[in-house]
């Protein structure tokens, strides 16, 4: 998924640490390159050719999706990228904040998300209402995608990458909470008796995968068996934990 405009860069930047997402699958481009993230250069948005060239440099394939973000619905850079994406067979989506826009008239999008926000408090300052609406919509899209991919369990980020103190603490809490919900799982998981070091050791044995560590602690199975269980269930932690519950019931009552 490629997303244009600085807010697109901001939205995608959080996916790898929060969901252990492959950064090569979520690519954000801004007209003029990364330097424009700190210093605005409005003129770089005026080239259709630049948008098409930047898209082409990624070697897109028909399995890719492009979301073109333009509050006015007429930014040349975005229009050029959408046209190029359509020529490469990508699924194309336009995100605009006005009706009857150029994005709609040119017909380069499979879907257009129109979110009219009305005149800005400061006329033409699209970083205000348009920017806020854009961020909210991108949050919905990227979060729904991660849920669909099975990277969440309830409201927990089960594929969080424990790369710093905050995320490591979150990972331990997720393992304790979810493993403790499985009837018959090990007493340490219920009581929270596993120490930080012990939980960190489990995560390390699981190659940093919090999802896999949940299965290991909840089931008491070895890592290879837990890997196989997740693979058989298409990576769905919910389904694997149901298997663990069933296995526990059978073991206790049969």
TrEMBL record:
GO molecular function: carbohydrate binding; enzyme binding; enzyme inhibitor activity; fructose-6-phosphate binding
Keyword Amino-acid biosynthesis: no
Keyword vocabulary terms for this entry: Carbohydrate metabolism
PROSITE patterns per the UniProt record, alphabetical: GCKR, SIS
InterPro entries: Glucokinase_regulatory_CS (IPR005486), MURQ/GCKR (IPR040190), SIS_dom (IPR001347), SIS_dom_sf (IPR046348)
Boundaries of every SIS domain copy: 1-151
Cited Gene3D superfamilies: 1.10.8.1080, Glucose-6-phosphate isomerase like protein, domain 1 (3.40.50.10490)
Chain coiled-coil ranges: none
Name of this protein: SIS domain-containing protein
Species of provenance: Mycena albidolilacea
Entry superkingdom: Eukaryota
Lineage, top ranks: Eukaryota, Fungi, Dikarya, Basidiomycota, Agaricomycotina
UniProt cross-references to Pfam families, sorted A to Z: GKRP_SIS_N
GO biological process, one term: response to fructose
Any one cellular-component term (Gene Ontology): cytosol
Record keyword Ion transport present: no
